[in-house]
Amino acid sequence: MLTRDNNIGFVFIIASLMALVSLTINMLLPAYSNINDTFKPSSPDKVHSVVSLLYLGLAIGQMLYGPLSDTTGRKKAMYIGLFLFIIGCLQSLFSSSLNELIIGQIIQGLGLGAPRVLVLSIVRDQYEGNKMAKIMSYVMMIYILVPVISPTLGKSLLLIMNWKWLYLFFIVLTLIVLIVFAFKMPETLQKPNRVFFSITRILKAAIIIIKNKESCGFIFILGLYSSVFIGILNLSQKIFEFDYNLGNKYTLYFALLALSIGLASFFNGRWVDRYSMKSLVHKSIYISIIASVFHLIYSLKYAQGEQIGLNVFFGVLLIQFFCYGILIGNISALALKPLGHVAGLASSLVGAISTIISVPVSLLIGYYYLKYNNNTLPVSFLLAGSFSLIIIKTINKYEK
């Protein structure tokens, strides 16, 4: 078993658990055309719902594993989640229709809620203060690299195997992580510190969040921006590999977008000491709106509503992803700020509620992009930014 002094082993296990979420989502993105060829759905937007519906399962899972682990301990709750994820992978592996595949994706999301939520709880159990911040910075450094390499890894595996075998890869990887976690990671929540599982406790925390106008506002903003991000994830192969004819270079462009979020997280850590979180949120939203307006005007004026040049499109998208990287951490923190007395459970609920908001909107973005294509993305970013500013002004009025 690991001890508190074995930081390298601890970081490796925690980062591996977090990486499962990102790998599952991003490695599958290059397989969309293969999935479409296999099942030949009546509508192409059905295939592009695969990631969105995994996020739906993830949202539901996030609400449950925090309270469950407070009762059973972190390890048992993690076992339940990882075994559920493996069941979802088996369902997708042996699926004979797109609907069966999507059911598997939702089950996978339910299972992945465990590492998504419990990683932070395990770190919080073991460390505090600067030590906790240091451990999490190492974990996040590894976690940021995963979206950069995972589409390339997925694309490489697709060259030598059927897309369904990606799920076998996920199963094998999960079993390796599960075995290492089981034998090396100690239980971090001891029995005297556990509480009974209570749906009432979850509902009470949800009511506290709903009654807090500031938290609700920031959760809605998080949901709006996340919906555009998830929508682009769903559409990424179509946009880069097919619409811009990039072929295998698609994964390189995706990696650069992922790096822009990582850079934003890095700079945010430095800027947040100099500026307030709200100031950074304001600045990022304004920059996002300006980039959206430029994108829309350029498309209408120079491309007559058709597909704009790759360099301009990708430059604007890099700006939008960088802004998203600034927004996601600060908005999450602002949503939790008034909820200190229920912070642990509130953290799970904030992530879950914002994801539930983002899933149907992301599906709508995918539908309109596939039907009308070119101006859907700038309009989506513009609407997300505009509604966010209205929400922030409303929050400020209530504060006064």
Number of helices: 14
Q: Which structural category do the helix and sheet elements fall into? A: mainly alpha
Name of the CATH first level of the largest domain: Mainly Alpha
CATH superfamily of the largest domain: MFS general substrate transporter like domains
- Beta strand count: 0
N-to-C span: 53 Å
Low-pLDDT residue spans:
none
Number of separate structural domains: 2
Strand content: under 5%
Instruction: Report mean pLDDT, rounded to a whole number.
Output: 87
Biggest beta sheet summary: none
Share in helix: over 70%
SSE sequence, one letter per element: HHHHHHHHHHHHHH
How many whole angstroms does the radius of gyration measure? 21 Å
Q: What gross morphology would you assign? A: globular
What CATH architecture of the largest domain would you give?
Up-down Bundle
CATH topology of the largest domain: Growth Hormone, Chain: A
